Amino acid sequence: MSSEFELIRRFFARPARSAVLGVGDDCALVAPEPGNVLAVTTDMLLAGRHFFPDADPEKLGHKALAVNLSDLAAMGARPCWALLAIALPEADDAWLAAFARGFFALADRHGVELVGGDTNRGPLAIAITAIGQVPQAQALRREGARAGDDVWLSGATGEAALALAHLRGRARLEPRALEDCLARLHTPEPRVALGERLRGIASASIDVSDGLLADLGHIAESSAVGAEVSLELVPRAAALAACRDETLARACLLAGGDDYELAFTAPAGRRAELEALARELGLRLTRIGRIAAGNAGVRLLDAAGATVPAPAGWDHFR
Q1: Which of helix, strand or coil describes residue 294?
Q2: Which of 69, 135, 185, 263 lies 20 to 30 Å from 198 when distance is taken between CA atoms?
């Protein structure tokens, strides 16, 4: 059986490229470029809570990093470094090789260097800390939304939650729809390029991980404003549009979580710029509402402008 240090050397040790000092010492050493600040985030994934214990390890390696890169994207930060802490029931070489393959495929695509971490024996759990950098004055935050701003959403929400509903027997998806939804659940794409390009355009930003309305609520609270979302404007992927259970479809769309899209606000005068950016990136950007004066939270509106009940988002302790 491989030792802890053999596991690190075989599957995770790589020569330092951009870090001052990488894997091998008690700490990594990293330095931001002049004028930049470090953006630091961490996410923990627990078997049985955030993923099925028999999850494909290659896809799990991708997702474990992707959810952290999504946080960096929400801040407009360029990903640079990551640390990985992983608890394993046993040292399974095939599992680790697949996990590392998925992790490094995404890391290499975004220029992320693994610079340290920890391994331990225990119930399967993965915690990644990702570090990026962004010019201090251009970092995107949740607190900048102003009355009159538009509310925008990248891509579409709800497919990951619909996949989970299928796996739990609450929905029945056709093969093509299931394939699309499972891809969104297991291998989400962090909107890194969009996040960097939103610097100087967006007034506030957040990644959609706990449900669209719940996460927009964080922007509203931090900015001391209200947000109004038009239900008919929220884009639906094909699988959501075809779902016959409207109650389930709406819950997935608005509160499902695990989407890793970006929700952001921007002044109305930036609409043409954002539409051009969407074409350039080949990424759908949809204007789904507006910011209103007063700290009124998030209101979901129907086509007539009347408030309709909104489902609650994800809470780790509910």
Answers
A1: coil
A2: 185
Q: Looking at the domain that runs over 4-138, which CATH code has it been given?
A: 3.30.1330.10
Q: What 3-state DSSP class applies to 11?
A: helix
Please state, for a pLDDT cut of 70, what percent of the chain lies above it.
92
Helix ranges (H only) for the chain are 4-7, 57-74, 93-109, 159-167, 175-186, 192-197, 212-223, 238-242, 246-255, 271-281
Q: Which helix (H) or strand (E) holds 118?
A: strand 113-121
Whole-angstrom Cα distance, residue 220 to residue 295?
A: 7
Q: Give the end-to-end CA distance of the chain in Å, rounded to a whole number.
A: 39
Tens of pLDDT, residue by residue over 280-290, are 999 999 999 99
Sequence letter at residue 149: D
∠ CA 120-123-125, rounded to 5°:
75
Chain centroid, CA 54 distance in Å: 22
For domain 150-306, is the CATH number 3.20.20.10? no
Q: Are 296 and 155 in contact (CB under 8 A)?
A: no
Q: What is the pTM of this model?
A: 0.92
